[in-house]
Amino acid sequence: MKTRATAVILGSCLLANGLGAAEPPPPATEKSAFIQFMEQDYLLGTWGGGRTWLKDHGVDFEFVYFGAWPHNVQGGIKTGNVLEGAFMMLLDLDSEKLAGYPGGHLRAGGLSIHNGDPFSPNYVGDLNQVSLLDFPDTLRLWELWYEQMFFSGKLSLKFGQMAIDQDFIMPEYYLTLASLNFLNQTFFYPTVAFNVYDQNIPGFPVGHHALASTPYGAPGARLRYSPTERCYVQAGVYDGNPDRFGDGTRINLHKEEGALAYFEAGYRLNGAKGDSGLPGNYKVGGWYHTDEFFDYKSTLTAPFTGAAPEVHSGNWGVYFLADQTLYREDEPDDDPARQGLAGFFRVALAPPDRNLAPFGIDGGLVYKGLFPTRDWDTLGVAFSYMELSDDIADAQRFMNSIIPGIAGEPVDYEAVLEVSYRAQLTAWWTLQPDFQYVMHPGGSSQNDDAFVWSLFTTLRF
User: Fold this and answer.
1) Around 174, how many Cα atoms within 13 Å sit in the side-chain half-sphere?
2) What distance, in Å, lies between the first and last C-alpha atoms of the chain?
3) Which of 254, 277, 312, 460 has its CA 20 to 30 A from that of 402?
């Protein structure tokens, strides 16, 4: 009986695991040629495998077209719209794959910008600029630099033609050059940092200073040290007056133009291998320009007082940036979309006697994959407030007391609220409707608040 019972049990197991088991799932059907075309990384594919072969051997190309159609619906200077476009060309070389020498990276980048009339100066009058593409027509060198890593990547030296916004005050979760979730310039790089520009004020002396922020680059060098995966310190020094009116190849390191130095320390929350918490970045830093800067109040009132304008030696500012993942959807660890909610906050300060905007603050939220089946789409809401210098407002009030209305409405602040949805139509094409409400464009109530609607697109070739 025991032998028979054992046989029955073994037979039942065999039936359960063999004849009684469910049939294996049918093999996955191959994707159609159209679906493969929509999911490939670039519009032009891999060039018949040539692009992949080059990348495997250390040569990588990237071509991106940006297009914008901003339309001022009401307020500002006047209603109207323009078409703006830019074509970006990038080349990256990996020293290890090319020559067997580890840690080296060479980048060359150029930009071709083709626009109509400048949008913000002619239609809105805002200081922040509602469109990232609002620059004069040009074909120019953007970046040409070499970076070498030392000590297993803990130390890096980068030098050549560089854009400062690719290294400093750089967000990592809510906005990057590869994922432009907002179109207003101030969310890409804070407007307070542009204080080192010559100011376009009638009768104001012209200096020799500017900022090497995209699409402009400048000769410089940056040294970065990362003692751990979670923290780093870095410093960079750049030409204080980049070539903005030529093709980007002018090198004129002159003492009259000075130098612009940046310093930054950062901490990556849950940024090391094995960390399981929500990641974030926290950065504090500052800049210093060595050129001379005119005092706003004494310079603007000089024609009325007869006193010589004051001149300040150098200019500076400080900033804090935080972007933090606030929520992550339940998804496989290897899911590249990484859906969830990220928040950001940034504040910048500068002295009011030599700067147009001594205080700026911005923040917002970005949700990636909010809607089902739209894992790569992003919805963003952001707000920025920028306070203008009381020294300038005092000078305006003084001038208006002598000749009523000559200095216009005294400046106070400019603010912007932006809502943007970035739709990933294919792996290589995005379409982005964008809405911005600009308060006090130009920094005063002289112009009515403006409502701007834009359509933005990117194509990767």
Assistant:
1) 32
2) 76
3) 312
Alpha carbon 230 to its chain's center: 22
| Spatial CA neighbour of 133 closest among 456, 459, 436, 461 | 456
- Give rounded-to-5 percent helix, strand, coil for the chain: 15, 40, 40
Residue written as token pair 């939220």: 365
Domain boundaries, the chain: 36-460
3-class DSSP assignment, residue 50 = helix
User: What is the spatial distance between Cα 180 and Cα 302, in angstroms, rounded to a whole number?
Assistant: 43
Among 215, 54, 243, 237, CA closest to 142? 215
The DSSP bridge pattern shows strands 84-94 and 80-81 to be unpaired
Report the alpha-carbon distance of residue 317 to residue 346 in Å, rounded.
13
Q: What is the DSSP letter of 179?
A: B
> For residue 36, what are the CA distances in angstroms to 40, 344, 422?
6, 35, 22
Residues 6 or more apart from 17 whose CB is under 8 A from it?
Answer: none
Token pair of 302 as six digits: 């000089």
DSSP string, 255-314: TTT-EEEEEEEEEEET-STT--S--EEEEEEEEEEEEEEE-HHHHHHHHHH-PPPPEEEE
pLDDT in tens, 338-350: 899 999 999 999 9
For 417-445, how does the pLDDT look when each residue is reduced to its tens digit (9 = 90+)? 999 999 999 999 999 999 999 999 999 99
Spatial separation of the C-alpha atoms in residues 448 and 445, rounded to whole Å: 6
Q: What is the mean pLDDT of residues 93-121?
A: 94
Question: Which residues fall within 8 angstroms of residue 449, CB to CB, at 6 or more apart?
Answer: 75, 437, 438, 439, 440, 441
Helix (H) or strand (E) holding 114: strand 104-115
Sequence-distant contacts of 116-120: CB under 8 A, at least 24 apart: 116/82, 116/83, 116/84, 117/82, 119/70, 119/72, 119/82, 119/84
CATH 3.30.9.10 fits 36-460, yes or no: no
